[in-house]
Amino acid sequence: MRRRWLQFGVFAGFCYFLAFWFAALYLGGDAVNGKAVEGHYFLSSHGHLTEVGRNVFTYSRWHVFSILITHPLAMVCALLLNRDCRK
Fold first, then answer.
1. Does residue 62 contact residue 70 with C-beta atoms inside 8 Å?
2. What is the residue extent of each domain of the chain?
3. Alpha carbons 4 and 6: distance in angstroms, whole number
4. Is the separation of the CB atoms in 78 and 8 below 8 Å?
């Protein structure tokens, strides 16, 4: 049962990262590298700014911050899964 949960953690983290990557690709960047100036919101990717609405900017910002939690959790799950498989 533990192994299934660890596999799920790795898979979920991978899928979440892919969702972030595709969203950033589709939207034209992410909010952490972007900026908000006088009621205008910009996502940034490799120095290119894309203007978006406030809701999209907020979504992108929270998605980036959540990656900082889910990505390390997925790595811990992978590490524990690898350790369990070696036994």
1. no
2. 2-86
3. 5
4. no
The alpha carbon torsion through 62, 64, 70, 72 (nearest 10 deg) reads -140
pLDDT tens track for 42-81 = 999 998 999 999 999 999 999 999 999 999 999 999 999 9
pLDDT-derived band at 1, boundaries 50, 70, 90: confident
Query: What's the CA gap between 46 and 58, in Å, rounded?
Result: 20
70, two tokens: 């889910």
Under 8 Å between Cβ of 53 and 41: yes
Task: Quote the distance between the C-alpha of residue 72 and its chain's center.
Answer: 11
